[in-house]
């Protein structure tokens, strides 16, 4: 795909949704970190149902530590892998209190040192909480980037590196939200809704649907 096509795709996505953000509910960087930590192999809707009551009861690292592991599990038991996620959440909260004064660090290295936090989670927090031009590549972004030929790669790291290279600076902060939402609602896995797609004429996917 050439530079002009990519620019037009990004311009259309921006015009359609000028202020995109995550569909996870949060009101501060800590809530976002915990929501993203809980969202692995779970839907944002499912996470929001659990974190609404949880954050109403405890939305700081110390408050969650004060809840204790068993009570935390009660709040998040509807989310897949909740036992492991609860343990990682408690360990993360302890590290935030011990090492960072109860605050979420604005540092990739410090974030990735937290239990259960990998590159993707760190990218989401740095981008959405702190406005960094990071791109968190999930299955939706991987699919959309490869299917459209916008930024092809054999794995999520390759796709991320390609996106960082080809996306102009003015679009970098928002591009991962646009691509996730596009993959979630339009360029879906089994049957993309090509007929309803605002970038269909620019997309280089061969097997377009009606």
From TrEMBL:
InterPro entries: DNA_glycosylase, Endonuclease-III-like_CS2, Endonuclease3_FeS-loop_motif, Endouclease-III_FeS-bd_BS, HhH-GPD_domain, HhH_base_excis_C, HhH_motif, Nth
Enzyme class: lyase
Binding site for [4Fe-4S] cluster: 187, 194, 197, 203
Record domain HhH-GPD: where: 38-185
Cofactor(s) this protein cannot do without: [4Fe-4S] cluster
Family matches, as PROSITE patterns: ENDONUCLEASE_III_1, ENDONUCLEASE_III_2
EC numbers: 4.2.99.18
Biological processes annotated in GO: base-excision repair, AP site formation
Reactions catalysed: 2'-deoxyribonucleotide-(2'-deoxyribose 5'-phosphate)-2'-deoxyribonucleotide-DNA = a 3'-end 2'-deoxyribonucleotide-(2,3-dehydro-2,3-deoxyribose 5'-phosphate)-DNA + a 5'-end 5'-phospho-2'-deoxyribonucleoside-DNA + H(+)
Protein name: Endonuclease III
Coiled-coil regions, chain positions: none
GO molecular function: 4 iron, 4 sulfur cluster binding; class I DNA-(apurinic or apyrimidinic site) endonuclease activity; DNA binding; DNA N-glycosylase activity; metal ion binding
Similarity comment: family membership: Belongs to the Nth/MutY family.
Signal peptide limits: none
Co-factor note (free text): Binds 1 [4Fe-4S] cluster.
Annotated function: DNA repair enzyme that has both DNA N-glycosylase activity and AP-lyase activity. The DNA N-glycosylase activity releases various damaged pyrimidines from DNA by cleaving the N-glycosidic bond, leaving an AP (apurinic/apyrimidinic) site. The AP-lyase activity cleaves the phosphodiester bond 3' to the AP site by a beta-elimination, leaving a 3'-terminal unsaturated sugar and a product with a terminal 5'-phosphate.
Keywords of this entry: 4Fe-4S, DNA damage, DNA repair, DNA-binding, Endonuclease, Glycosidase, Hydrolase, Iron, Iron-sulfur, Lyase, Metal-binding, Nuclease
CDD domains listed in its UniProt record: ENDO3c (cd00056)
UniProt xrefs under SUPFAM superfamilies: DNA-glycosylase
